[in-house]
Design brief:
With 99 residues, this protein is mainly α. It has helices spanning 3-14, 34-55, 62-81, 88-98.
């Protein structure tokens, strides 16, 4: 269950000299020992479940705004990785129209 994610995560931290994971000398052939990272992944899963439980108690509409903000940040950060600078207002407007 964890193997693909483990390979990705472990080499991300092992090869920190590179800015992007695809610049790793091992890309895309990652390796790790699952027993080393499983406790951390289990801890992350538990925290994610707790957060999901807490989020379910938020007022209506607040989760939608949080999702939109996440989409906007993702679009802006992705464009920066690709060397583009998007206008935050334009991205926000586009997400609002599509959402």
């Amino acid at each position: 269950m964890y193997s693909a994610h483990i390979r990705f995560i472990v080499n991300y931290w092992i090869d920190t000299a590179n800015v992007y994971i695809w610049q790793s000398k091992n890309w895309p052939d990652f390796f790790c020992q699952p027993a080393c990272i499983r406790p951390k992944l289990d801890q992350v899963l538990l925290l994610q479940q707790q957060l999901t439980g807490q989020a379910s108690e938020l007022p209506d509409g607040l989760d939608r705004q949080a999702e939109m903000d996440a989409l906007i940040q993702n679009a802006l950060q992705t464009s920066e990785i690709e060397g583009e600078k998007l206008n935050t207002g334009s991205v926000r407007s586009s997400v609002a129209r599509q959402y």
